[in-house]
Amino acid sequence: MEIQNRVLEYLKGSFTSDLKAGLITAIVGLPLAIAFAIASGVEPQMGLYTAIIAAMLVSATGGSKYSISGPSGAMTVITLSTLHSFGLEGILLAGFLAGVFQVSFGLLKLGKFVKYIPLPVISGFTSGIGAMLLIGQIPNAFGLVIESKEQAWETIYAVVSNIDNISNTATIICIGTILLLLYFPSLFSKTKLIRSLPPSIIALVLSILIVLQLHTNIPLVGNIPSGLPQIQMLDFNLELLIDVLPAAFTIALLGTIQSLLCAVVCDGMTNSKHDSNRELVGQGIANMTLPFFSGIPGTAAIARTAINIREGAKTRMAGIFQSLILLTILLYLGPIAAFIPKAYLAGVLIVVSMRMINVDEFKTTMNISKMDSAVLLVTFLLTVLTNLVFAVQIGMFLSIVLLFVRLTNVIDIQTMENYDITSGINATIFADPYLKNNVLVYTINGPFFFGAMNVFENKINEHMNISKPHIILRMRYVPFIDATGMERLKSFIRSSKKQRQKVYLTSIQPEVMRVMKSDQELTELMEKQHVHVFDGTQEALEFVKEENDA
C-alpha cells in the first residue's frame, strides 16, 4: 500500500517534469551519442548503446540524482587511442577494468581526494582533449574520407594531403551547424515557441534536408541496426589485460574527475548535495556492464546534465526516461541515421570541443602563477602531442610536484626574536636574565616532512654561532610529521646532546604525538629525558627555571 501511495504521489508530482526533461535530453543527446561513437572510431550504434545503458544504470545507482551519463568528449580521445593500440577487444576490456577501478575508488571512499588534483592539471587535460577532439573533426568538417588517426599531427597531415578533395557542401553544413548551435539560443530568446527547440535538432533536420534535396556525395553516418545489442563475453586474455591496464586506469581517472565535476555542477544548479563515493560506484557499475552490450566507456556529461536540470528534472527517473526514449528511437528510427551527414556531427563536436578549451581558466592561471602556468601548458601540450595515457601519468606527477613545492613554501621556522618582546613567551624570557641568555626558542609552522628539511637545516645553521644550553621547539602549528621529519628530529636531538644542549618539544598536536610515540628510538630518548615534552612553552620555561634554581 505504501509503495502504491508513493507511485501515485510521484505521478501527481514529478512525473510530467521528469518525462519532459528526459525527452529533451534524449533528443539533444541522440546526435552527440552518434558523434562521440564515430569520433572514437567505433560503430555509431555503440554510442547509442552507451548512452542508453550508462544513463539508466547511473541514474538508478549513482550519487547525483540529476547526472546524465553516456559517451563524452573526455572519453573520445582515450577510447580512440586504446582502439588504435589494442583493437575493439582491448577497448571493451579497458572499459570493464576502468569500471572495476571506479567501484574500488568508491568503496575505498576515495571520491573526496579528486578535489586535491590541482586545477592546472585538470584544465590542461580537459583543454588538451578538447583540442584533440577539434582536430579530429577537421576531416569530417571538410567532407574528407580519412581514417581516424591517433595523433593530431597525423590528422592534420592527412587533411593537407587531401585538400583538393574538400567538399563545399560538407563545409557549409558544418559551419551552419556551428553557427546555429552558438547563436540560435540568443537570436530567438524572446520567441517562446522557437526558443524551446534544441538548436542541435534544428541543425540536424536542415542537414538531412540538404542531403535529400541535393543528392550530394558527402560522408554519411549510414544505417544504424535497429534492435537491442547482443550480449557478448569479453576476452579476458591475461596478456591483453596487462597491456590495457594503463589505459583502463586513465579511463577510470578521467571518468572519475568528469563525473564528480559534473556532480558539483549539479549541486550548484539545484542546491543539492551529491554522494561522491556512491557516484563512483554507480559509474563503475555502468562501465563494467557496458562492454557486455557493445558499449564504450562512459561518464557523466555536463552538457546533457545541465539540459536535464534546466528542463525541470525532479528525480532520478528523468535519466531513466531519457534512456527509454533513446531506446525507442534506436528500435524504430535507426534508418534515419543513414541520411545524417558526418559534417553535421563534426559541427556538433567542434562546439563541444570549443567549450572544453576554457580560455578564461588559461588567462586566470597565467595571471596568478608562473608555476601553475607551466604545469597547465605542459599537461596541455603532452595531451595534444603525445598519447593521453602518458599525458595523464606526467600530469599526475606534476600535480605531486606542485603539491610538494607548495607544502615546502608553507614551511616557516622562526625564532622568538621575530615576536614582540613585551608579551607572551618573550615577556617571560626577557624578564629572567638566565632564560634570556640560555634559552633559544624555534616556532615551526607547517608540516614537518621531507620537503621541510632544507628550511629546518638552514634555520639551524643560521644560529650555529649561538650556543645556548636549552633549545625549545614549539610545534603547535605542525599538522603532521613524516618518516624523514622523524629521522631529522632524532638526529637534531642526538647532535644537541653531544653539545650538552637540552631539547624541549612543546604544544605537540595529538596526531603528531601519536606518530612520535610509535617510534621506539624517540620514545627511549623521551624516557631517558634526553628530550623533554611539555603541553605548553610556558611550562617548559618554568621547568628550565626550576632546574637552574635547583
Please write out the topology:
Layout: H1 2-13, H2 15-39, H3 44-61, E1 69-70, H4 73-107, H5 119-136, H6 138-141, H7 152-161, H8 168-187, H9 192-195, H10 199-214, H11 238-270, H12 276-289, E2 299-300, H13 302-310, H14 317-332, H15 342-356, H16 359-368, H17 370-385, H18 388-410, E3 412-415, H19 424-430, H20 433-438, E4 439-445, H21 453-462, E5 470-477, H22 483-498, E6 502-506, H23 510-517, H24 520-527, E7 531-534, H25 537-549
Parallel strand pairs: 4-5, 5-6, 6-7
Antiparallel strand pairs: 1-2, 3-4
Summarize the structure.
The protein is mainly α. It is built from 25 helices and 7 strands. The chain has helices at residues 2-13, 15-39, 44-61, 73-107, 119-136, 138-141, 152-161, 168-187, 192-195, 199-214, 238-270, 276-289, 302-310, 317-332, 342-356, 359-368, 370-385, 388-410, 424-430, 433-438, 453-462, 483-498, 510-517, 520-527, 537-549; strands spanning 69-70, 299-300, 412-415, 439-445, 470-477, 502-506, 531-534.
